[in-house]
Amino acid sequence: MVVIGNKKNKKTRNRLPQKKQRQWNVREKLMIVHYYENNNRNIRGTAKRFDIQPKQLRDWKNKKGTLLTTAPHVAKLHPGKPARYLKLEDDLFAWISEKKANGNAVTRKLITNKAISLSKSPELLANNPGIAGFKFSNKWLEGFLEDMTLVSVVEQQ
Hints:
Layout: H1 26-38, H2 43-49, H3 54-62, H4 64-69, H5 86-101, H6 108-119, H7 122-127, H8 138-156
Helix pairs in contact: 2-3, 5-6
């Protein structure tokens, strides 16, 4: 006698759904720490209530002073990797600011092309020999634009 098994899609069997990562902003982190401090100081219970790991709560509790001095909308306290070619990014920021002040549209492609042309200047090549092989990728552009918006927000205040 031959037993024929279930021939449904075997890839979907025995798989647990992946838990999605969630980024908490400073306001939410402080709210959870406040709840922890005012409700019996139970780390595991508070973590379970907000569906986070106890380690996350311990870290937020230890960084409470920093969280209190940070803007409420910020999600990450670490500023990230510093710019490798600061002079190039300063020149590029000045160029974008000038274009926007004149009412010209500035696209992502224009920004990348201008960065490439600025990187070929003899001044930058002399100070930064590795810039010739630098790839101005979409990831670099995202980081540059994010830093630029933070600078713009600070300048407006």
